[in-house]
Design a protein that fits this description.
The mean pLDDT is 86. The chain is mainly beta. Strands 3-2-5-6 form a 4-stranded mixed sheet. It has a two-stranded antiparallel sheet with strand order 1-4.
Length: 107
């Protein structure tokens, strides 16, 4: 889909996203991985414009609020993998976000 092959991906976040209970717009399950190296060339897809953004420049881009909040966990080397649950308001703003260590989910 992107033209990249990531090497040694590390699971960082499993995120359940859902819209307001009275709004049946969507229910997503995201798997967010982090990798330090890759091969291949970035290609365009039907998913929209793709770009490689350096981590130290992410704050300059107009990213959705939820993406910024998920990235806080995905890029934090001190945290292990997390399970996140996000609920949105009818106008697609983050209503509630909770995060727990993924290892706590297995016990």
């Amino acid at each position: 889909e992107t033209g990249f092959t990531v090497e040694k991906p590390q699971l960082r976040v499993i995120c359940s996203e859902s819209s307001h209970p009275q709004d049946v717009d969507y229910n997503w399950l995201l798997f967010v991985f982090r990798a330090d190296s890759y091969s291949g060339e970035l290609i365009q897809s039907d998913e929209g414009e793709l770009r490689w953004l350096p981590i130290d420049e992410l704050h300059q881009w107009n990213l959705p609020e939820v993406d910024r909040r998920i990235m806080e966990f995905a890029l934090n080397d001190e945290l292990g993998p997390q399970y996140m649950k996000v609920e949105y308001t009818p106008d697609h703003q983050v209503k509630h976000l909770e995060s727990v260590p993924l290892e706590a989910m297995s016990g």
